[in-house]
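COMPLEX REQUEST
Ligand: iron/sulfur cluster
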Amino acid sequence: MKHETLKTTGAPSLEELRATPAFPTREDFLRGPIAVIECVEEIPCNPCETACPKGAIKVGQPITNLPIMDFRLCTGCGRCIAACPGLAIYIKDYTYSEDEALITFPFEYLPLPQKNENVTLVNRMGEAICQGKVKTVINAKINDCTTLISVIFPKVYFDDVVSIQRLPVEEICH
Ligand code: SF4
Ligand code: SF4
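STATUS: Structure written out below.
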């Protein structure tokens, strides 16, 4: 069955993602920071294509095509992240350091983490898998209220990390 894991668990498996035309290979990740697009449903949508200043993302016609990526053009600038209404794009940098990787992802919850804060990173199922440190928290006007969080984490969890665990709501009131 197509996208079996997505349909039965709510999140695609790595195998399902690797079968999509925009998912990076190991070699692509060795280039440095690049966009990772986890878009597996053929829906009418293409703001990622128009947001990329380098022309690295192509949806084309029909608009229900899955996006495809030209990683030779991607600079990891992150402009496509907030443009995606499905929050399906993040940037990963496998080359950040010898033992650490960097992920930059959209975060639309409060409270926001702070720079240098230790946070718990999660996999596609929302399960906690490791600890990391917040490098930046960016609220740029161009991103239309979507905050971009960058977190440094152990490289050994590279394939599975996609976001961070939400912080306790009580912290908003203090
Ligand atoms: S990270 Fe920048 S260059 Fe790469 S696909 Fe997104 S918008 Fe284009
Ligand atoms: S904007 Fe997001 S949901 Fe829409 S096609 Fe691009 S990656 Fe998929």
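REMARKS: DSSP finds five helices and nine strands in the chain. The mean pLDDT is 93.
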